[in-house]
Design goal:
globular, about 35% helix, HAD-like_sf, HAD_sf, alpha/beta, hydrolase, 6-stranded parallel β-sheet, two-stranded antiparallel sheet, about 160 residues
Length: about 160
């Protein structure tokens, strides 16, 4: 197995990675998402081990994603329409790290520009085919079902 001990920053997509990809729309037009608590515990364990975790999402539910990030003590959060690579490059400059020290978990084609350049790329079991073909690791669990925890336990924090 490849050694991923040099990863300093793990980037996560939201829809289809931290969630099951469903968009739940209420009668009043508001949305809600279901996050997996096991992913949250894994994120905390990773942070405790000194690896920073960030969210880069091209979604529109900024306050919802920010609220989940706040629960987990995540300070690097971007939700918007900017290119994910542009956001990541700014963060890497701030942290003084290179792409080989970045891991990315994504599930759809808008994640590929980062996944193709990162030192580690992973995707949930139900990611789209194009992502599965490019990912270093295709996880066994689906998005929203603990796939981030699977990566953390089996690869990033594995002895």
């Amino acid at each position: 197995m490849k050694d991923y001990k040099n990863i300093k920053l793990l980037i996560l997509d939201v829809d289809g990675t931290l969630t099951d990809g469903g968009i739940y729309i209420m009668e009043d037009g508001s949305q809600f998402k279901k996050f997996n608590s096991r992913d949250g515990m894994g994120i905390r364990l990773l942070q405790k081990a000194g690896i920073e975790v960030g969210i880069i999402s091209n979604g529109k539910t900024t306050s919802m994603v920010q609220a989940r990030a706040d629960m987990l003590g995540m300070t690097r959060v971007y939700v918007g329409e900017a290119k994910k690579m542009d956001v990541l490059e700014a963060w890497m400059t701030e942290m003084g790290i290179g792409l080989d020290q970045v891991g990315m978990v994504g599930d759809d084609i808008n994640d590929l520009p980062v996944m193709e350049k990162a030192g580690l790329s992973a995707c949930p079991a139900d990611a789209v085919r194009a992502v599965k073909e490019k990912a270093d690791i295709v996880l066994q669990l689906k998005g929203g079902e603990g796939c981030v925890r699977e990566l953390i336990d089996n690869y990033l924090l594995a002895d």
